[in-house]
Amino acid sequence: MSDFYQNGIITNFHNLTRRPVEELEADLVRFAKRRPMGLILPSLYSELEGPALANIVDELTRVPYLNEIVIGLDRADRDQFLRAREFFSKLPQHHRILWNDGPRLKALDAELEAEGISPQEPGKGRNVWYCAGYVQSSRRTEAVALHDCDIVTYDRGLLARLIYPVAHPQFNYEFCKGYYSRIADGKLNGRVARLMVTPMLRALKAIYGPLPFLDYLDSYRYPLSGEFSMRTDVLDGIRIPSDWGLEIGVLSEVHRNYSTKRLCQVDIADVYDHKHQPVSEGDATGGLNRMSLDIAKALYRKLATLGVQISAESFRTIKATYYRIALDLIETYDNDAIMNGLKLDRHSEEQAVELFASNIMEAGKAFLEYPRDKPFIPSWNRVQAAFPDVLERMHEAVELDNQGKV
After folding, report:
1. Cβ count within 10 A of residue 77
2. Contact 377, 126 (CB under 8 A)
3. 60 confidence band (pLDDT: 50, 70, 90)
4. What phi, psi does 267 have (nearest 5°)?
């Protein structure tokens, strides 16, 4: 980003000088003496065979300040886990793989499920939740970053900029969100953020007034980014959503627990591209279709906890207001794309808006019909109250998987 404007109510760190990554890393090496740092990588096994993860691992081998890397591995059988151990073995940092489908962690999960405090469905939320528990059990870090494993434009400067605000000993930030422009192959991407989240937040503000929470969310330049960092103690008390509302849910949780003066965002990449989700118009269980449903439900649930009265009639008003704002934004994005020599398919953009508008209603219907829905995985504070030795047992299970026979 070329501007230096502090918009919204959270601190914004810009990339004003394109400071060399070597300088950032030299600072972080110094910071690490007082505040050890780690990284969480939630991964599907299939990503080991994709175009992005091998490069990410190669870049991470050159990172000098990390004290620990925790890899959450989903959808892997025994042979695939052994292959993953070999794949990540080149990392010079202390690293551990959570074999989430292995017998040891599945047995632990079964105990938690019997008490009703385990994740209800597989996915990134569950993966991140278990990684967060392991980070607390290992006690090797005081600041931790998280990013996806499908970033095809990855370089280690992304991680350095992402973790810097929470690693600096003289900064008081507890949580940092990464942002970037979604441009690839001459096209403007990021449809759910541009065409769903931003116009929906502005519709909600128009209807319910300038609620501090809505102003807060609207301050994030890319609220759906999968990259964030935090002080490790933040992991104790947040409840992680198990569905596609993960990013919005995490932002909601840190807003609930901390002053906005302790939250920030940072420009982490000039170019960013990763695996694109299909729209899946005819399948509400996948792609951008499912994502938009879960995000809308996450927003409704949060508004309800703030005392906002939401009825069936409300959703028609939200949909109509959203639709008008979103169509106006398409015009804006189209003009911006043209000026920058980028492509934007207005027809597909309007089709996406129509789907998202429909899902605003569908999410509202689900919100009203299933009031006992539990979208959040319990915090690790609660889990430890039920199972005081759970972190020690998880740590032992992971150690046995990584160092012993499986």
Report:
1. 12
2. yes
3. very high
4. -75, 115
* Residue partners of 300: CB distance under 8 A and separation at least 6: 310, 363, 364, 367
Helix runs in 306-378, H state only: 312-339, 346-369
**What is the residue whose two structure tokens read 């969100």?**
177
CA dist 301 and 303 (Å) reads: 6
Place of tokens 């278990």: 130
324 neighbors 354 (Cβ within 8 angstroms): no
Quote the CA–CA distance of 224 and 251 in Å, as a whole number: 10
Q: How does strand 228-231 pair with strand 175-180?
A: antiparallel
**What distance in Å separates the CA atoms of residue 67 and residue 142, rounded to the nearest whole number?**
10
Q: How far is CA 129 from CA 71, 239, 308, in A?
A: 12, 9, 29
pLDDT per position as a tens digit, 300-350: 988 988 899 888 889 999 999 999 999 999 999 999 999 999 999 999 999
Residue 265 β-bridge partners: 12, 177
Q: How far is it, in rounded angstroms, from Cα 248 to Cα 208?
A: 19
Structure-token pair, residue 388: 């005081």
Cα distance between the two ends of the chain: 48
- Calculate ∠ Cα 35-17-266, nearest 5°: 50
Q: How many CB atoms lie within 10 A of CB 344?
A: 16
Report how far residue 146's alpha carbon sits from residue 201's, in angstroms, rounded to the nearest whole number: 25
d(CA 29, CA 66): 8
User: Residue 31 and residue 74: Cα distance in Å, rounded?
Assistant: 32
